[in-house]
Hints:
The complex is a heterodimer.
Chain A: E1 4-12, E2 15-26, H1 31-43, E3 48-59, H2 61-75, E4 80-84, H3 88-96, E5 105-106, H4 109-114
Helix pairs in contact in A: 1-2
Chain B: E1 4-8, H1 15-29, H2 33-56, E2 63-69, E3 73-79, H3 92-98, H4 108-119, E4 122-128, E5 131-139
Helix pairs in contact in B: 1-2, 2-4
Amino acid sequence: MDLSLSTRNVSGPGGDRTVVEVGGEIDVYTAPKLREQLVELVNDGSYHLVVDMEGVDFLDSTGLGVLVGGLKRVRAHEGSLRLVCNQERILKIFRITGLTKVFPIHGSVDEAVNATD
Amino acid sequence: MATVELRFSAQPEHVRTARLVAAAVARRAGVDEAVLDEVRLAVGEACSRAVGLHRAYGVTAPVRVALTEEEKAFSIEVGDEVPGPGSGGAAPGVRGATADEEPDDGGEDGMGLAVISGLVDDVEVTSDESGGVIRMTWPITGATAEP
Lengths: 117, 147
């Protein structure tokens, strides 16, 4: 399965958030598309991103690298990058790489959009 | 002799094929369903790393994946043909020094190995003048899957 990406803007208590809905497989082949999307959003001035990973079937370290790169970019603008994920197989990858300490991971898009910490 | 052997040109789009084949052969060999996700991820990481090394060093040879069903274990060997330091994890800094990539992905190679060692209990990384090999082994607990 290929990667699917869609974005939408949502207002939260902390201001506008851009939700990036990702579906399919994020691997060495498809990760560059996600990177381009994140870079484009930041270049267009969207610094508060919520990456919804509920539709992701597969994630590898290339994908993790892209997410870390996205976080670095938004942080340069005092922004945020929050993840939405409930899938154990995906969460496990964040856990074994220690990235659960780096990314705020939420159970729903609403929760992520409404987070103000 | 390997149960199934796969050679693919070092292109990112073929890594998915390697994952699918590895998971299918592992399932047939009787690797526990719960572990198949780990097999898929680990073989993908090893292949992505080999593809990255071949491309960074301009190696035109294919990446090799050997899937072997043994009596009580299932093993996967992913071999690259980048000799000596810079393959097999012997010198983690080497690839970063030559690959002209975005700084975002600078830690990708090491991250792949980190994921593999976090996932697989039995993993061996070796390298010599002919290239590097990552060998990963999983126990077979159940009976061989029905055809």
